[in-house]
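Example 3.
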Amino acid sequence: MTMRRSGASAPREWSPLVRCLIELADTPDDAAGVETQLVTVALLTVDRVNAADYASITALRGDGYATVAASSDLARTVDEAQYNSDAGPCLDSVDTGAPIAVPDIGSAMRWPGFREQAFALGLRASLSIPLFAGSGSTLAALNLYGRDHATMGALIKAVLSVFEAQDGNAESGPEVLDDGSRELVIGLTEAHAVRATIQRAIGVTIARENCTAEEGYRLLRARAADTGTTLSRTARGLLAEQR
Amino acid sequence: MTDDRPADPTAAFAELGRIKLGETDLGGVLERIAALAKRTVPGAAEVSVTLVRDAGVHTAAFTGQTALVLDEAQYRAGYGPCLDAAAAAATFSLPDMAQETRWPEFAGRALEAGIGSSLSIGLPVHADVTGALNVYATEARALTEEAMALAQAYSGYAAVALANAHLHDANVSLAQHLHSAMQSRAVIEQAKGILMGGRGCSAEEAFKILVKLSQDSNRKLRDVAAALVESVQNSRRS
C-alpha cells in the first residue's frame, strides 16, 4: 500500500517506525487498518529499538485485555501473567493513558505475578507506552521488555520526557540513544503533535457547532472521509480557515 | 522450608541478600525477615513487623499468634512501644514486663500472654509509611545487647524492602500525575482551537490568552480550558 502523507510534514527520510506511529495517530479509531498498524508498531519496535529485547501490544478487547501483537512467545507469556493476575504495568498503561516504566523489575513489588514471571524469564526492565489513534483516546499499550537495565533506563527517560513536555514538543538527549530508540521517541513526539492538531480542530468545531468534543471529532472524521484525506490534513485546513 | 536449620545469622543475612532480588512481594519479604529473626535472635520467642500508613496501622508479618495479639492490642489502644518506635524511628527495650512503667497496660497484657520482655525497633524509613520490628521473649531480661544489635540489622532489611516498595508506589503516583496531565492536554488543545476560531489567532497566541486567563483568575490552566470548552459546547442547549 502507499504510505499516506501524514499529519505533521512527514519528511520522506523518516523511518517506517516513525511513519507508522504518526499514521496511527492520524487514523480513525474504528478504521480497518488500525489493527495492522498496531502489529507493525510492535514488530518495528523490536526490530529497531536496541533496548527492547521483546515487544508486544496490549489492547482492551471486550471485557478483558488481550495481546494483539507480540514479537515472541516470551513477550506474550509476560503479558498473560499480567492478565491472569489482573495487574501489571501494561494494564495500568491502557487504563490510565500514561506511560508506566519499571526500571527495575526485581523491585516491582506492586505486581507479584508480573514480577515473578518477567524476572524468571530474565527480564530486568520494562516500559509500557500508551498508543492512540485519531480520537486521541488511549487505544492500546506498546510494551517493551528488556534484559538490560542501562539501555532501558536511557530509553525510559527519553520516552517519559515526551509525555511530560508541554505541547508534545520534547527535546530528548538523543546522543545517548541508539537509532531505533531515537526513532521511537521522534515517532511518539510527532504522534503527539498530530493529536494536538486534531484536538485544536475539534475545539474549532465545538465553537462553530456548539457541540461536544465527541461530536466535534465525529464531524471532523466525516469531513475527512468526504474529502478523501486524513484527519490531520482536514484539521490543518480547518485551522488555516480561521486565520 | 529452612526453619529446622541451625540458627546462623550470617546464613540468614545471606538469604535476605538473595531475597532482595528474589521472587516474592513485600509481605513475603517481611515474613521471611520475621521468621529468620525469630530463629537467629537469641531469646526471641515471636517476631512481628508493624506497618503504619496513612490508611492505618497493621501487622504485616508475624511468626505466631501471641505477637499478633499483642501488636493489635496496641493498635486498638492507640499507643504502645511498637507505635512509639515506628513514630520516632527509635529502639525501645522493655527488659521486664513486671517492672514496666512506660506502657503499663501493654505490659500487663504481655505478662498475661506469657511474654516477659520485648524489643521494638523503628524502621528508618523517610516516607509516609513507617514501621517497627517487634521481638517478644518469654523471660524477663532475655534480650541482650547482642540480640538488640541483631534485631536492628533485621530492621534494616525490612526498611530496604519497604523503601523499594515505596519507591515503586512513588513511580505509580508519578504516572497518575502524568495521566491527568494527558487528559488536560487534550482539553487545552480544544480550548486553543476555540480561541483560534473565535479570534483568528495562532495556536501560540491562543495559548498565551489561556495562560493570561489562568493567571488573572488564579485558576489552573486546565481548569480554565475545561471551563471554556464546557461553556461553548453547552451554549446551544442553555
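The first strand of chain A starts at residue 54 and ends at 61. The radius of gyration of chain A is 18 Å.
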